[in-house]
């Protein structure tokens, strides 16, 4: 075990992949790994890229990887697809025009599907991103396939959430969906080589004006991933948001509340697992007792809770 961790920490991609698989199992060993790695985390900037399918997330992610690599940053990519049963493999990586970066040792791509994610996709995505962080990846891009609730939960765990919009896709719907407006830290209107991009950007700005003012006003960039245009502007905005998080009280409070959420999530997961296992153990006899009115559901639930807490 220790050698795998050491090899991963020294930047060996195969060891890193194996370490992630162990973390994803969410068993006792996973917790032991995370305990050891956690003190080494906190350096990476995690960027969530979300938006409707076809908006160009994958193309933009690829442009961002190229730019970050030019800055000599190591880049980890987590491609999230809750509808996919696969984890770890390259199924989703295909979407990322991975061939452009496949031979680059400073780029590591990990796919996350629903398989083996007992603690939920957002929990395992976060743990995998912490592993990347500990292993020296400076930038972690979390790219999602869609904008469903599970994708929203996943990107919420990022430091900076980037919402990709495009002209001509029922723009009001794109923007309003799933309260996404509130979670976006920056907006990118992609496909600005097409008509209507400036209109979408203007609409977003109007909607931002209508929202209660916040300490960080999300900037709106126009970009064309196919032409590699507007990428610098996105990078500038990402860096500015990173600085806001690091330098302001609001930014730091936000980072703290994310850590708080992690603790709550671990507690919920742990308690749910204990409830399940206690119930499996007691279920057979308990149902007979309930049916015979020898006990009642309230007493039974209280007994089970006592058992869990004492464990
Ligand atoms: P995703 O589903 O959001 O990841 O979107 P993709 O990156 O797979 O892109 C969907 C389609 O839009 C592909 O055919 C891309 O070539 C195309 N596309 C991506 N970015 C642009 C752009 O800036 N302009 C134009 N015209 N097409 C783009």
Question: TL;DR of this structure?
Answer:
With 311 residues, the chain is an alpha/beta fold. The protein contains twelve helices and seven strands.
Distance between the termini: 28 Å
Instruction: Give the strand content.
Output: 5-15%
Considering DSSP H and I runs of 4 or more, what fraction of the residues is helical?
A: 40-55%
Bound molecules: guanosine-5'-diphosphate
Major beta sheet summary: 7 strands, parallel
**What's the count of strands?**
7
Structure report:
Helix 2 (13-24) packs across helix 3. The chain has helices spanning 2-9, 13-24, 28-37, 57-70, 121-134, 149-156, 171-176, 180-183, 197-210, 231-247, 249-291, 297-310; strands spanning 45-51, 75-80, 107-112, 139-144, 160-165, 186-189, 220-222. It is α/β, with parallel strands linked by helices. The model has no long low-confidence stretch (mean pLDDT 86). 53% of the residues lie in helices and 12% in strands. The chain is globular, with a radius of gyration of 22 Å. Bound molecules: guanosine-5'-diphosphate. The site of guanosine-5'-diphosphate (GDP) has 15 residues, from helix 4.
């Amino acid at each position: 075990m220790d050698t795998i961790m050491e090899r991963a920490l020294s930047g060996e991609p195969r060891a890193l992949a194996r370490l992630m698989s162990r973390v994803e199992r969410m068993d006792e060993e996973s917790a032991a790994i995370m305990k050891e790695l956690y003190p080494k985390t906190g350096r990476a900037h995690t960027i969530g890229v979300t938006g409707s399918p076809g908006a160009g997330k994958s193309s933009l992610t690829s442009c961002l990887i190229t730019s970050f690599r030019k800055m000599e940053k190591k880049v980890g990519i987590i491609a999230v697809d809750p509808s996919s049963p696969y984890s770890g493999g390259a199924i989703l990586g295909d979407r990322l025009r991975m061939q452009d970066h496949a031979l680059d040792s400073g780029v590591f791509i990990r796919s996350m599907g629903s398989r083996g994610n007992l603690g939920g996709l957002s929990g395992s995505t976060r743990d995998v991103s912490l592993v990347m962080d500990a292993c020296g990846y400076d930038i972690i891009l979390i790219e999602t396939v869609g904008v469903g609730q599970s994708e929203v939960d996943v990107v919420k765990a990022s430091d900076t959430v980037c919402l990709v919009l495009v002209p001509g896709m029922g723009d009001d719907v794109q923007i309003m969906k799933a309260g996404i407006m509130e979670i976006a830290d920056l907006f990118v209107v992609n496909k600005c080589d097409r008509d209507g991009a400036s209109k979408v950007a203007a609409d977003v700005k109007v909607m931002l004006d209508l929202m209660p003012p916040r300490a960080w006003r999300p900037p709106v960039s126009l970009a064309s991933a196919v032409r590699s245009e507007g990428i610098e502007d996105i990078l500038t905005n990402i860096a500015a948001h990173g600085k806001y998080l690091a330098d302001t009280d609001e930014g730091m409070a936000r980072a703290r509340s994310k850590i708080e959420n992690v603790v709550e999530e671990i507690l919920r997961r742990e308690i749910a697992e204990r409830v399940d296992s206690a119930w499996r153990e007691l279920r057979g006899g308990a149902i007979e007792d309930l049916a015979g009115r020898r006990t009642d559901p309230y007493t039974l639930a209280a007994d089970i809770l006592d058992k869990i807490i004492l464990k």
